[in-house]
Amino acid sequence: MLLNKKVHIYQQLVERLFDKCQRIQADNERCVMRVNAIKKTLRRRNFDVEMLKRRLDKHGDNWRSVPMVAPHPKGKTEQKRRGPKPKNKQAPDGGTAPANPTRKPRKQRAKQPQPNLNSTMQQQPHSGIC
């Protein structure tokens, strides 16, 4: 019986390992398909660029003498730069602000008073229906 138990455990481990290998194989195949799709897209792009160059040369366009400018990232013509705010702001009187300006304390919300349910229950008259 001890031998059968060991064989059973061994078979379970082999099945788990086989399933894991199949999952890895499927993931590898997906990666290979993605790489092949990207290669195909690049081949098409290169073909289109070469065809466009040939057509422009055929029409006598002077495109080769025009300086190439790299496009701005994300299609923006002018990137907005957001840096830290300047530390030394001017005071309203025209001078410079002190190094450690005193800040106003933050206002705290006033707590709403909780209605006392016991007192309201005692104050209500009974309708007499019980």
Could you give a quick summary of the protein structure above?
This protein has 130 residues and is an all-alpha fold. 49% of the residues lie in helices and 0% in strands.
Structure write-up:
The structure is a single chain. By secondary structure, the chain is mostly helical. The chain has a domain of 30 residues. The protein has two helices and no strands. The longest helix has 57 residues. It starts with a helix and ends in a 7-residue tail after the last helix. The model has no long low-confidence stretch (mean pLDDT 79).
Low-pLDDT runs of 5+ residues are: none
The helix content, as a percent range, equals 40-55%
**Biggest pleated-sheet summary:** none
Beta strand count: 0
The rounded Rg comes to 39 Å
Shape designation? flat
Average pLDDT metric: 79
Instruction: Give the number of helices.
Output: 2
SSE topology string:
HH
Distance between the termini: 75 Å
